[in-house]
Specification:
Elements (H helix, E strand, L loop, with lengths): L1 H6 L2 H7 L3 E3 L7 E3 L1 H20 L10 E3 H6 L2 H5 L5 E4 L2 E5 L5 H12 L10
Antiparallel strand pairs: 1-2, 3-5, 4-5
Length: about 120
C-alpha cells in the first residue's frame, strides 16, 4: 500500500513532469518551471471563463496591508498570531495569510464606498 502511494506522491510527480519545485530559500512557495507555468495558465483561463459565465468579475488585490485594515474589520484578533507582521516607518503591516474575500472586499468597499458582491450568490 505504501509503495503504491509513493508512485502518486505529488512531490515526485512534479519533479518527473518538470512542473515546479520548492526551495528552502522560499519555504512554502513554489517556483513554476516553463511546463508548470503553461499548465497553471491553462487552469487560470478555464477558471476565468467560469467566472465570466456566472457573471463574476476579477480583481487583483495586494498581499500586504497596513494592520489598520485588519484591526478595523476584526481580522487582527483572529489571524495576527499566524501572520507575518513587520514594521516600516513606524507603521505595522501584515502579509495576507490567505486570500480572503472578506478582507479584500472590505478594502475595495472602503475605496469605492460600496459593498462588493459576496461571491456566495452570483
Amino acid at each position: 500500500m505504501l509503495e503504491e502511494a509513493k508512485k502518486y506522491d505529488h512531490r515526485e510527480l512534479t519533479k518527473k513532469q518538470e512542473l515546479f519545485f520548492f526551495h528552502p530559500l522560499s519555504p512554502g512557495s513554489c517556483f513554476f518551471l516553463p511546463h508548470g507555468s503553461r499548465v497553471c495558465n491553462k487552469l487560470l483561463e478555464f477558471i476565468r471563463s467560469q467566472y465570466w459565465k456566472r457573471g463574476y468579475e476579477e480583481v487583483w488585490t495586494p498581499n500586504m496591508y497596513n494592520m489598520q485594515l485588519w484591526e478595523t474589520f476584526g481580522h487582527a484578533a483572529n489571524y495576527k498570531e499566524n501572520m507575518f507582521v513587520f514594521e516600516v516607518e513606524k507603521q505595522e503591516f501584515g502579509l495576507k495569510p490567505m486570500n480572503s474575500l472578506a478582507i479584500n472586499g472590505c478594502a475595495i468597499s472602503l475605496q469605492l464606498g460600496t459593498n462588493v458582491k459576496s461571491g456566495l450568490n452570483p
